[in-house]
Specification:
Blueprint: H1 9-13, H2 25-38, H3 42-50, H4 55-64, H5 70-75, H6 81-90, H7 105-111, H8 116-125, H9 140-144, H10 153-162, H11 177-183, H12 188-283
């Protein structure tokens, strides 16, 4: 698994990267913060945090003078819950920060084996982080599952609850949380819990895919039925049109026959009248 990037001391000493926004004490305070975290001087860190009024004081100056985010550094050292709470109160937006390896503070917390109590505030502020992948495709669940006998079962549960789909996600080496747990030889109960979660999530995905296929087939059947209905209606319209045309032709033919008959009758009547006049003239 990847490790957090190292501090860039040159960037910290570059005058162009340093823009103090608060009191003169703050840059010195922030310069000591990373060292205190690395040495786990939690009481001194508590005092340092209590002296900062807001994110715009201590933590913003720290961000301007450090290559890494303060939360990444803090959670890599398995901090106590009260320090986590104080720091998250000062800078809740920093939970979404991503370091050079693509990791969130939640990645760092799970990689260091933090307790579920420490991780849950991170998840509460940024639930989507439970499903985030780093530059190698690793999720916080994969990192948490790689602690072998020291694995935190409550932490595994919290991560699965926050993002159930990640139990079947795989990194760039095609390894998922279950494979990480197997290789690190986690306790049997933890491994069984991951197995059940994987099976449950696969079943959910299969049912979802089945419903999607059913909906797609139903839509296709409906479209086919609608097309058939339209074709039937068009065929009926064509029959009606043909019948109308045939009826019109019949009417026209009947009319022509009547007209021809009347014309013939008139001709016959005229001939009869002429013959009668001729006979009358001869008799006279």
């Amino acid at each position: 698994f990847t490790t957090p990037g190292s501090r860039n001391d040159d960037a910290r000493q570059d005058p162009a990267s340093y823009r103090p926004t608060c009191t003169r004490k703050l840059p010195a305070m922030t310069a000591n913060l990373e060292s205190l975290v690395a040495r786990r001087k939690w009481n001194r860190i508590r005092s340092l945090l209590s002296s900062a009024d807001s994110d715009s004081d201590l933590l913003e100056v720290y961000a301007q003078n450090s290559a890494r985010d303060i939360l990444h550094i803090l959670f890599a050292s398995d901090p106590p819950l009260d320090v986590v709470t104080d720091l998250l109160t000062l800078c809740p937006s920093r939970v979404e920060a991503i370091d050079s390896t693509g990791r969130t503070p939640l990645h760092m917390a799970t990689a260091s084996g933090a307790s579920a109590e420490v991780v849950e505030p991170l998840i509460a502020l940024h639930p989507a982080a439970a499903g985030c992948r780093d530059s190698r495709g690793e999720t916080p669940l994969m990192l948490a599952a790689a602690h072998g006998k020291r694995v935190n079962k409550s932490l595994i549960k919290a991560l699965i609850r926050a993002s159930p789909r990640t139990v079947n996600d795989e990194d760039e080496e095609d390894m998922g949380a279950l494979e990480c747990a197997l290789l690190s030889e986690v306790p049997r109960d933890v491994f069984r819990m991951l197995q059940k979660s994987c099976a449950k999530e696969r079943k959910r995905r299969d049912e979802k895919a089945k419903k999607a296929r059913f909906a797609q087939q139903a839509a296709a059947d409906l479209a086919t039925q609608q097309t058939s209905d339209v074709m039937t209606e068009l065929a009926a319209i064509n029959v009606n049109v043909k019948n109308v045309k045939l009826s019109s032709r019949r009417q026209a033919f009947t009319s022509d026959v009547h007209n021809s008959t009347r014309t013939l009758n008139r001709g016959d009547n005229s001939s009869s009248s002429g013959s009668a006049r001729s006979l009358t003239g001869r008799a006279a």
